[in-house]
Amino acid sequence: MLKLFQTLSLISATTTMGLMAGLFAAFSYSVMPGLGRTEDRVFVEAMQRINAAILNGWFAVGFAGAIVCTGLAAALHLGSGHRAVLPWLIAAFVLYAAVLVITFAVNVPLNNALDAAGDVDRIPDLAAVRAAFETRWVRWNVVRAVLCTAALACLAWSLIRYGRTL
């Protein structure tokens, strides 16, 4: 039964981490460059709407699931027979923990400030609101994408190592 839980936790961790790596990467190479080519009003309004829309159950599953499932997988592999897998799980956990720190310390406060600016029709200086948000948010999102992709690679490697122990 332990093997089943180990396997399921590894698969769940890899899947949820893949969802998050894909989300952050997609923002890095398509969403933000596309919005970067728009006028200030479109940029601010689109980001406000994206920030509201992303707060849903599907996002929560990936966002929280990546840390929970990775932590669970690591806990289930603490025995001495799993030394080949455990370091990769710990690395993935630490990398994603860094993503969470960045998210809550940088990206969420920027999202909140953008929302607090109010309705785009009532913002007197859209360029200033955008300038206070865009460069810093984009920079730190790229960092999140890189860290999350590295965590995904660690989890993929842990699956390979785990498969060799069966």
From TrEMBL:
It comes from Thermomonospora echinospora. Pfam families: Anthrone_oxy. It comes from the Bacteria. The chain crosses the membrane at residues 57-78, 85-106, 142-160. Keywords: Membrane, Transmembrane, Transmembrane helix. InterPro entries: Anthrone_oxy (IPR013901). This is Uncharacterized membrane protein.
